Structures are given as C-alpha cells and as structure tokens.
Amino acid sequence: MKPQTAMNKDWFATARTLSEALPYLQRYTGAIVVIKFGGHAMGNATEMASFARDVVLMRQVGVNPVIVHGGGPMINDLLKRLGVESSFVRGKRVTDAATMDVVEMVLSGLVNKRIVQAINDEGGRAVGLSGKDARLIGCVPDDPDLGFVGRPEAVDPTVLHHLFDGGFIPVIAPLGADEAGQSYNINGDTAAGAIAAALNADRLLLLTDVAGVKDEGGAVITQLSPEEVTDMTARGIIAGGMIPKTETALAALEGGVRAVVILDGRAPNACLLELFTDHGAGSLIRATPPRITPHDADA
C-alpha cells in the first residue's frame, strides 16, 4: 500500500473543496454571469491563462459566462507608436476619427482575439465579437465634446442567447454603433453593466486592480446596499476610480441584475472564489437584504 504523502493530502483537500462547492455549483447551474475583464491581468500571460481556465470551468459546470473586456493601455501604446496625437476635454480623451480607427483595431482585433485564444487554449469554445455585431449595442454620443465616445441606448442580447445554446463563451469588445452605422467606443464597465442588465444576469463581476470597496480605515467591505454606496460616495469614502465602478453597479442593479461584485482580478481564481465558496471575494452590492453569511449559496 502506498504511504499517504503530502501530495496525497493535497488530493484529499481538493476532493473536500469540490464537495463543499456542490451547493454553489447547483445554485449557479444555468445562471448568466457577466465578467468585466481588464487591468493588470490582461497584460500578464500567467494571469490571463488562469482567468481563462476559470472561465472554462464555469462553463463546464453549467454557468453561462460572458466576458466584456477593456484595452486602454494597449490603445495608448498603439496610438503612441502610430504617432496619433490625443487631445483631452475635462481630463477625458477625445475620440476623433483617427483615434476611433485605432480603438476598433485594438479592441476588436488584438485584445479580443488574445482572450478568445486563451480560453480556447484551455479547452473552451470562445467566440469574439463586438457590440456592433448583430446590433448587440446601439449607442448615442455620451458627450459631444468627446467625439466618438458612446453610451449604450439599446442592447439586443439575442445573439448571446444563441451562443449560450451552442455551448459557446462570448467575448465582447466594448464598441457600439448608432442608427447611421457610426462606430463608438464605450467604457468597458459601462458596456458590461448594460449587457448584464439586458440579460437579467445573476451576477456582474467587475474585475479591477483593487480588492474591492474600502471603508474609512482601508478595510474591504464585503457587502453593501445601494443606499450605503450612495452615502459613502456623498461622504467621499468612495472616490476616484471607484466611483464609475459603483455607478455601473447601481445602474446594473436598477436594470435587473441580481448582484454586482467588485473584486481584484489579480487574485488567483477570483471568480471561482466569489461564485463557489463561502468566503467569496471583493465587495458584493445588491438591493435585497444582506446574506446570513458573507457569501452564502442562497444570495
């Protein structure tokens, strides 16, 4: 008989973890989970592969994941290499026609296909598209002074349901078009929130480079209500780059998303921790009453 080595003990721990995950696996079977993927993890091959593996596992156990990605650093890099000058209004980049061409090349081409390939390399079946495909996202100008920066006005998720039925994982570049066919660049968080609302998603996961919403002492808050988010923003506790993320969260909840989680995309297996463990990950925002435990399966 083989001795029980440290490796054997690891196997037992893995089996126990899988057993404990069963209620969560059952809870999320058939659920739609929209994931905004961006930040540091997009530029790190190891973290990209880990994220892709987690997404494939989610699909394998019956979850319908939808990936919406950004690509700001890659856009900045190509603009610089092409010598395309940028202008700014109130601190925001103006997207003129030349910049829009670069944005579309980077988001629909380079970034989108890298994520698709990473998921396919892990055994998944990912399909890359943008908000322009199948009229997924109809846009209007967000601010005329910013040029071709759009705000989702109408989202038709029909194509996504067809992809779910076929066992595919949609990977979406945050682009849209108006009724005349003009392309628009959309903030990735905003696009993810609009798509999640149109799908009545069970979860919207906003992966960032921070651990979640923090209190005045710097500790991550695991659960918040919309009212608490509004109050913390008014008091300046939620500030800076966290404001647009919490605004996206509140809009998604109002649009029918069951809950939104802001979490650190750099943390190993962050999505799996949030969905399939008691511990969860990051800050969960939802309008319904608090969970009995931090992240229980009935939430």
Give the key terms.
two-stranded antiparallel ribbon, 20% strand, 9 helices, eight-stranded mixed β-sheet, 14 strands, single chain, alpha/beta, 299 residues, globular, disordered C terminus
Which SSEs are present, and which pair or pack?
Blueprint: H1 6-28, E1 32-37, H2 45-60, E2 64-69, H3 72-82, E3 88-89, E4 92-93, H4 97-121, E5 126-130, E6 137-141, E7 150-155, H5 158-165, E8 169-173, E9 175-177, E10 183-185, H6 188-198, E11 203-208, E12 223-224, H7 226-234, H8 242-254, E13 259-264, H9 270-276, E14 283-285
Parallel strand pairs: 1-2, 1-11, 2-8, 5-8, 11-13, 12-14
Antiparallel strand pairs: 3-4, 6-7, 9-10, 13-14
Helix pairs in contact: 2-4, 3-4, 6-8
Please sum up the structure shown.
The protein has 299 residues and is of the alpha/beta class. The chain is built from nine helices and 14 strands.
List unreliable stretches of 5+ residues: 290-298
The helix-strand sequence is HEHEHEEHEEEHEEEHEEHHEHE
Number of H/I helices: 9
| Radius of gyration using CA atoms only | 20 Å
Large-scale geometry = globular
Estimate what percentage of residues fall within beta strands: 15-25%
Bin the helical content. 40-55%
Mean pLDDT: 88
The largest sheet has its strands arranged as 5-8-2-1-11-13-14-12
Overall strand count: 14
How far from one another are the termini?
45 Å
Structural class: alpha/beta
